[in-house]
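Protocol step 4 of 6.
Sequence for Pectate lyase superfamily protein domain-containing protein (Paenibacillus ginsengarvi) entered exactly as in the expression construct, tag removed. Do not edit the line below.
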Amino acid sequence: MEWDNDNTKISRRKLLSAAGTAAVAGVLLGQGVGLASQGNGVVNDVYGNPTMSSNGNASGIRRIVEEVIEEYGHVNVKEFGAVGDGVTDDSQAFRDALAYACNNHLTLMTDLGKTYLVDNIVVEGKTDFRLVFRGILKRPDQLPATNPQTRTLQFNNCSNFVIEELHFDGNHFNNNCFVGGVYNTEFLQEYRHCLYLYNCRYARFGKIVGKNPSGDVIYINGANTYNLDFDIVEGMSVDRDGVTPIALGRNTVSVCEGKNITFNVVKSLGVGHITMPGGFDIEPNWGEQVSDVYVNYLYVLSSSMSALGITTKYGAGANIKNIEIGTVHIENDVAAPKRLLVLTGCTNVHLNRVYIKGTVESYAVHIGIAGNAQPVYKLKFDSLEIDTCRYGVMADHLDEGYMNVIVNQASENLLRLYNVSNFDFDVKGSFNPLTAYPNTPVKNFCIYLYMAGTNNLINCKFTGDLAKNRVGIVGERCITTNASNGAAQITNCEFSLNLDGWEEARKLVGQLSHTRKMDLTRSNILGTTAMRPTANLMQGFSYYDTTLNKPIWWNGANWIDGTGAVI
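Step 5 output, structure tokens:
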């Protein structure tokens, strides 16, 4: 092979001629090359330059796609009569163009800047084709209610294909979608997805953008769905000004069935009706299973019911397995009891870095409670930070795992636990200083062990810092339980926490005497009232007043006790 110059660059034509169509197809479609950064893949583009993208692979794939387009044949939808003026119905032109491109294993293109009015485009059983759609696929206005529901672009039983770019406009405003409306009955908008993948396999996706979806931007289903790689997925629902996020649509991504599915970056802005999910959802239905899903980065700005759901009503933990997400960033602005991160019926879920910003009514993390209270096994949170919520973490039917959590600005509980076993909690946090104190009824508990009925806490360990000066003066109790039978319900647990500053009567409330270990620290600086330090005091400095027989601390101006009263 003749090199063009002294470095390792080789011309496009020589490389492609030497490699041949089959070899290039292998590079594009082989299992070893993914748009999400998973293992070894393409590390140089066809000119020998290092790829430059968020995951190290996408620009290389895109360059190769461009080369294939140039060298090995492509067609444009305009050759089949597509107009792209946003007024003419181009649906049949797209059906004809897709049939021709797929049957002849070509690349099908659209023109940048064009808007194509289309719906109900279905590709069935095709293989080895490529799409580069830089124009916008827009749903027509006022589509009639039908059953089954139409999707904008649907692939059934397709394999070994590349979709390098897709842009959708779901046109929800002009299809009877409105905030607070009856969303999934008369017009069945919940099911009108932009991109629907059924029983698809060995497919690679570059950039998928969905604006104003009526249903999901991407919906994935089918027992024979596997080996799908997505680089960038963006969903957005905006008001008529084109900028302000508005709560409409269902999810940016829904995975109802499939395995070995990877996403590099998923961003969801506003997508999700206020009474429905929103953002990213793994939710198999009866008889469906999802396993081995990896997401590198997930960002959700949502006003909907949930921003991230890994949940099912079926299977007792067997229908969702092996889910890993690197970084999660969730923000929700609705002052209502919304569950922002929901996990039920899943096994072996690993969330590395999670940040959640909610409101004073948010249920930030909901585990094993929603739906039919399906169990959660082997759950791992390496780092979970919650900023503003009603409840930080609520957990029921949770067995095995760990959580490192900081809950700031809670208005009720940092942790609220029902049935939990074999789990380690490292917890820090604070209460919203605007929360009423004292509450009626009393409810500002750092850790609430809700042991009503037959609930149990078994083989659990609690570490962390819940000092009174950290959690704030509105904290009414540190650890409390309503267990009717502590010996039977709270067993073999360890509490190794810093509870500095809590009065003894408020430190522990309820039956905790049957735990395995209680190691609750308090300030080791103590003395009489007359011996209180006076020099170089820092705000939050703790002191145990033996005259008063209770902890106090310095608030920057005065000594105060656990109620906030100046002492």
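Step 6, annotate. The first strand starts at residue 74 and ends at 76.
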